[in-house]
């Protein structure tokens, strides 16, 4: 799944986004491009679970 996170502006934000995703699925593969604000996640979880976790932590995503 791919998301765009508009308020992800730096490496610290990217680390927070990665940590949030890993908190709900420790086995997820997360690739982030801060410049384009894109996040790609490979996980066995449903998309709404990832969206809910990111939104709760202040990084509301939109589908890319």
UniProtKB/TrEMBL annotation:
Pfam families: HMA. The keyword Transmembrane helix does not apply. It comes from the Bacteria. One of its GO terms (molecular function) is metal ion binding. The keyword Iron does not apply. InterPro entries: Heavy-metal-associated_CS (IPR017969), HMA_dom (IPR006121), HMA_dom_sf (IPR036163). Keywords: Metal-binding. CDD domains: HMA. Residues 1-62 form the HMA domain. This is Heavy metal transporter. It comes from Acinetobacter gandensis.
């Amino acid at each position: 799944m791919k998301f765009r996170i508009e308020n992800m502006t730096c490496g610290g934000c990217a680390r927070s986004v990665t940590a949030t995703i890993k908190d709900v699925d420790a086995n997820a593969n997360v690739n982030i491009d801060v410049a384009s604000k894109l996040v790609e996640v490979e996980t066995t979880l449903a998309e709404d679970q990832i969206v809910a976790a990111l939104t709760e932590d202040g990084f509301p995503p939109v589908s890319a």
